[in-house]
Fold:
Amino acid sequence: MTDTQGKPNLLDLNFHQLEDFIVGLGEKPFRARQVWQWLWQNAVASPQEMTNISKDLRARLEESSCIVLPRVAKRLQSSDGTVKFVLELADGAQIETVLIPEKTHITQCLSSQAGCAMGCTFCSTGTMGLKRNLTHGEILGQILLARADLEASGSALRLRNLVFMGMGEPLLNFEHLVNALESLRHPQGLDISTRRITVSTVGIVPGILEFGRTGLGSLAVSLHAPTQELRARLMPKAARLPLDKLMEILRQYPLAHREKLTFEYVLLGGVNDRAEHARELVRLMSHVKGKVNLIAYNPSPGLPYEAPDPADVEAFQKILWDKSVTVTLRKSKGKDIFAACGQLVTASERGDD
Structure:
């Protein structure tokens, strides 16, 4: 993205692009490393704050570029400590990001698109349609804002884990996603280990295997149904790739020793949470190295689904356990602030807020 005068946003440049930009200003390549540190480790708002580079270079950067972060349009904090932001981008589009407190750290849920084209019937973001892909700077800018908020609030917990499970389908924004992931691990930048990063997909081909070959993070697959028929009802666009084909592709996914794919499964009351669904899920996973992350549905206004009965959740989980499937139950957080993906932006668009 650019500012109103057409200047490039320095946050949208990966390191090599920034290096080319700095060299294009007549500077030595090592200056790019200094500027990169100011952008991502110090989160400066202006080149004038970059005190270890010359005044002349600061002036030329000020004249030829800009530093534009998303704007915090709304911040809500849940009684359980979850913090949700609605961020406004330079063109007025809105996205969401969420900070989820764990016992020892913070996990941030990141958006990769404004809206989403996949139209999953249980997802608020799916009702929006796709507005556009996010840029490198808009993806990583969410992290800069999160770190600033944690520092301002005096949080004792550090931001450690990143999950691309917010608005959008990450693998449909592949180029900017990979650029952002490369930048995340840069030691003079945000310096976040790939072991702390998870990218969630509904199943995009060829993006799945391409992402696996990058080694830039772990893969989570939004499954949500153990049969093609049910998946087509819940996720009609994702289900255009038949479930058996998806599983065949996942069998080819490159995994490190002891690494497993994560299958995300949102339990919808009376829809996909029966004992027979659990048994079908066990059969489906029998030839794939995977584990299951169960999520009790957080009801969204305007969508025709209910939360599952706790007894059904327990029974579903037990069937998987008894068949030696590794399974975790993600506790729902932030219900009082509409923390599920897309709820706050869609409420705003409806005028509910």
